[in-house]
Amino acid sequence: AHCSDLRCSGATTATLDSTGDVGRFTSIVIGQDGLGIISYFDSTNSVLKVAHCSNPSCSAATSTTVDSSEKVGRYSSITMGGDGLPLISYWDGNNGSLKVAHCSSINCSTNTKSTIESAGNTGWYTSIATGPDGLGVISYFDYTRVQLKVVHCPNRQCSPQ
User: Fold this and answer.
1) Which pTM value belongs to this model?
2) Closest CA to 92 of 116, 127, 128, 112
3) Would you put residue 73 in left (φ > 0), alpha (ψ -120 to 50) or beta?
4) Is-contact 110 64, C-beta < 8 A?
5) What is the SS3 string spanning the chain?
6) In Å, how far are 30, 134, 150 from 24, measured between CA atoms?
7) What is the C-alpha to C-alpha distance for residues 151 and 160, in angstroms, rounded to an integer?
8) 57: Cβ–Cβ under 8 A, 6 or more apart, which residues?
9) pLDDT per residue as tens, the chain (161 positions)
């Protein structure tokens, strides 16, 4: 939905992806190009997708599959990393782990995926932000240990060192 004023008393809505059961666990950020970037779960195919808006009202978008491994993408959260590119945290349901995708382009058509934690069944309900150092900070739920956890990414790609 694109609000028509600051109080959002009116809005224009658009459907960006309607193939199957799509659009669960959404998160949105504004890219350096001023356009919205939305991470979401495609339940039909059990994959993580990103929609990059084509205009400020987001009446059209280009959708890209970010991770096509089976049962990945639930609980996605997106932020703009310190390098100006999207960084997405999400749950890998196939392996019960917390994963991150660092996009190499604004529409995330190319990306690098990393497993952050894989002990037990962890990585549920992720939330990601970019810290003052330009690195990702992720909070998430460890289902096995019934704990709230947080991780500070060691680099802009949030890949293990």
Assistant:
1) 0.95
2) 116
3) left
4) no
5) CEECCCCCCCEECCCCCCCCCEEEEEEEEECCCCCEEEEEEECCCCEEEEEEECCCCCCCEEEEEEECCCCEEEEEEEEECCCCCEEEEEEECCCCEEEEEEECCCCCCCEEEEEEECCCCEEEEEEEEECCCCCEEEEEEECCCCEEEEEECCCCCCCCC
6) 19, 28, 23
7) 12
8) 2, 12, 14
9) 889 899 999 999 999 999 999 999 999 999 999 999 999 999 999 999 999 999 999 999 999 999 999 899 999 999 999 999 999 999 999 999 999 999 999 999 999 999 999 999 999 999 999 999 999 999 999 999 999 999 999 999 999 87
Amino acid at 44: T
User: Hey, what are 2's tokens?
Assistant: 């694109």
Tokens 């309607």 label which residue? 18
